[in-house]
Amino acid sequence: MKARTAIVSSVADQGVAALTNILVLVAAARLSTVDGFARFSAVYLVFTVLLGISGAYTGQPLVLRRGERDEVRTACRSAVAFTLLVASVLGALLAAVCLFVPGDTARALLMLGLVLPVVLGQDAMRYAFSTLHLPHLALASDVLRLVCVLGTLAVQPHGASAARLVAVWGLSALPALLLSAALVRRHVAHVPVQLRVLTRRGHLGQRFVVEFGVGNATSQLSVLGLGVFGNPLVVGALRGATTLFGPLNVLFTSATSFGPPLLGRLASERRRIRATAGLAAALAVTAAAWATALALLPDGVGRHLLGDTWPAASALLPATGSQYTAMAVGTCGLLALRMLDPRTTLTIQVVFSLASVAFLAGGYVLGGVPGAAWGLCLGSACKAAATWIRVAGLRRRSAPERTPVSVPAVRSGH
Q1: Residue 397 gets which letter from DSSP?
Q2: If you average pLDDT over every residue of the chain, what do you get?
Q3: Global pTM?
């Protein structure tokens, strides 16, 4: 596939995935009460953390894969099989534990456990398509998922429980999973499955999971903690605000997940870094424009989107919009570091993600929910500055001083 076609397909796929994400949360907000949406948001946060861990451990190392064609195909088949196996085991454990725990949130988590192999498996195949330079197949699968999600949620009654919405959302991905499995099989059917390499010490995914744990997951679990130990409506308010930025959130995550195969087509390191800097500027402008448009929404339109959650979420739009503008710059900085040397990102993630948690908690103490949102914004701005300072430092080093890092190819017999 030509580079331009691959880029268009990849961008379109991320747009469809973003639209699916935001419509799921919008539909849940409109179908639920404020308390019901808070429960759904809490469960969706758990899923987001698990999705991020899965992508960090198997997906992100996969898209950095280099080697012979059969080695890459083996890596793709192994990553998909590993994800399905682990998701099945983890989902069964989650469902078994929640079966004996009372409450609506526990029932929703039980449903999440049952559908976990479906949603994580479909996502793993998106990474495989990207690595195989077949983003148009990922696009086809995600379009099918969007249609199924809209169709199933459209027939749900108002006031549907969080458990029901989680089950409907998860099962609606089953047709996309089956389609993706059929398409992936056509390209990897005759290569072996090698799972041992994914569990070896030193697998790059282990480092990426740590980065995710102290990065994305830390802030999300901190929000969940504020809801548990502080005001339960904090989760719904912050989640409602970030829901409106759903397309940008998915694009930022996808930049580090699916950007390397596309940027790797550029001939030189200098061109790749310049392209990443241009992407950072474009995404930052887009985030600022999106935040401005949301701030100008009439209350009637906002209530139509988020229902009873709109008043609390709208008050956070200035802080959340500023945070996403900073996140655009920081995400692209991390992408540049991944291409230069993926070992350099862990320290930045640890230091500035923990700083973001401190800013979040401090902001909540000083200014309530709006203060917490501005704390997250400050943390994102500091991380963005640190990433590009590190990129500049690496670029000043001579090429012989940098040892290139890549995921080792999977070879049979190991």
Answers
A1: S
A2: 83
A3: 0.72
